[in-house]
Amino acid sequence: MRRGNWALDVDRLWRASRKGVIQVAALDRLGVPQRTSYRRCLPGGPWRWLLPGIVLLAASPPTTAQRVEAALLHCGDGAMLTGVAAARRHGMRNLPDEDELHLLVRKERRVQSTGFVHVERTSNLPRPEIRDGVPLAPLGRAALDAARRMRATDPIRALLAEVVQRGRCGPVELITELDAGSQRGSALPRQVLGEVLGGARSVAESQALALWRRSKLPPAQWNTPVFDSAGDLVAIPDAWFEEVALAWEIDSVEFHLGPEGYARTLARNTRYAAAGVLVVQTLPSRLRDDPRGVLDELRAAYAAAASRPRPPVHTRPLVPS
Alpha-carbon distance 239 to 224, whole Å? Predict the structure, then answer.
């Protein structure tokens, strides 16, 4: 297109863009002088400045997809989205709101963080997964990159527990990935993954694990299948005290995925009763708001379980049918 004639075919500019996002250098090649691009991004103009050398061919605020395209253009070939934004595109829900986009690039690249883009240069660049045309770091890497930038354990627990519970990554795989990546910010994710390896699979169960350690009670098994004398599955309690056949369940709508969980809880409690198993049920909120009361109940239940004959129940790995 001849310089100065671009306004006769504005649609061509849009077709050359990525969802309306385009580099000033690309506009220049299409006949739009750079000074014109910059002028049209001034307040009140028809375009919007997004990142250095990158504009949106509209004055409206950019959509999430347009911000991602701008970030990828800024970082260049081989870049991929990671962290919170990538984990969300992988389908994870336990994520904080975050405006900044985290991108991985090859270590030798000299691109810098700017605006809403955080650039991480790495020698451990994974093979991307493409979703809706966007290159994403694999879920394990994306989740750990998000966790490394968090400053509190609860959101880290929530994210990594969701990754494990959904069967998308195992805890050993996550620890291997954590060891291979940057060690900056790895202390809290490493602590949480230690809890996950110990069996706790949610924020509430991790809090319960910490509370049990204060209780001075005998060892507990976490998320271990329990079977009755006929070999039928009774339940998979959050915590199980093998010596006295005591189950500890952390029950709530929030942590057991919806109202339908209550029907399953009633059926589970009936199986516990039929097998002669005592069960302590605790709301997650009480782990935080009334830990002393929860400890008292747990110790009392343990004493009651120890005072009666142990029922003929046992634990073993769950064999897939």
Answer: 8
Phi, psi of 135 (to 5 degrees): -75, 125
Please answer whether residues 234 and 226 qualify as being in contact, where contact means their C-beta atoms are separated by less than 8 angstroms.
yes
Ramachandran assignment for 54, one of left (phi > 0), alpha (psi -120 to 50 degrees), beta (any other): beta
Reading the block at residue 117, the tokens are 């883009």
For 233-267, give one letter per residue: b (16+ CB within 10 A) or e. Answer: ebbbbbbbbbebbbbbbbbbeebbeeeebeeebee
State residue 45 phi and psi, 5-degree precision.
-80, 175
Dihedrals phi, psi of 59, to nearest 5 degrees: -90, -10
Q: Which residues have C-beta within 8 Å of that of residue 253, sequence separation ≥ 6?
A: 259, 261, 262
Instruction: Give residue-wise pLDDT tens across range 241-284.
Output: 999 999 999 875 444 444 555 677 888 999 999 999 999 999 88
Q: Is the Cβ–Cβ distance between 275 and 311 less than 8 Å? A: yes
Are residues 313 and 247 in contact, defined by beta-carbon separation less than 8 angstroms? Answer: no
Enter the pTM of the model. Answer: 0.65
As given in the structure block, the two tokens for residue 109 are 């690249």
